[in-house]
Design brief:
By secondary structure, this protein is of the alpha+beta class. Helix content is about 25%, strand content about 35%. The chain contains two helices and six strands. Strands 2-5-1-6 form a four-stranded antiparallel sheet. Strands 3-4 form a two-stranded antiparallel ribbon. The chain starts with a strand and ends in an 8-residue tail after the last strand.
Length: about 120
């Protein structure tokens, strides 16, 4: 099964967008380990919300776009990883390993819908 791990963080923290060399080394080792073990499909960090936009569609059909930063959000998406896991429990265990790399973080784990789920 595939699972999406989305991590959220407080973008006002200094280390949020300026990771230390030690963090980069730990993250690199985790990525290499998970890739070699067939756990990691892909993982990416994202830029701060100031470089983003939020697109909304109303029930009336109109769309609007708002440039970042997203002042109403205390925590923003900092990145994501798409992983392989046998089940939800294993995916949560991987998310705990992932979260341990950070000082302060929240990781949401969601199972990816597969084509077979519709049959």
């Amino acid at each position: 099964m595939r699972f999406l791990m989305v991590h959220r963080m407080d973008e006002s923290l200094p280390e949020a967008w300026n990771p230390s060399p030690e963090f980069i080394e730990r993250m690199g080792a985790k990525i290499q380990d998970w890739t070699e073990r067939g756990i990691l499909i892909t993982a990416e960090g994202v830029h701060p919300s100031v470089k983003g936009a939020l697109v909304r569609k109303s029930s009336g059909g109109a769309t609007s776009a708002t440039d970042g930063p997203f002042t109403e959000a205390k925590e923003v998406i900092g990145g994501f990883a798409l992983i392989n896991a046998a089940d939800r429990a294993q995916a949560v265990a991987y998310a705990q390993e992932y979260a341990a790399l950070f000082t302060e973080i929240e990781v949401e784990v969601r199972q990816v819908v597969e084509f077979e789920d519709f049959q």
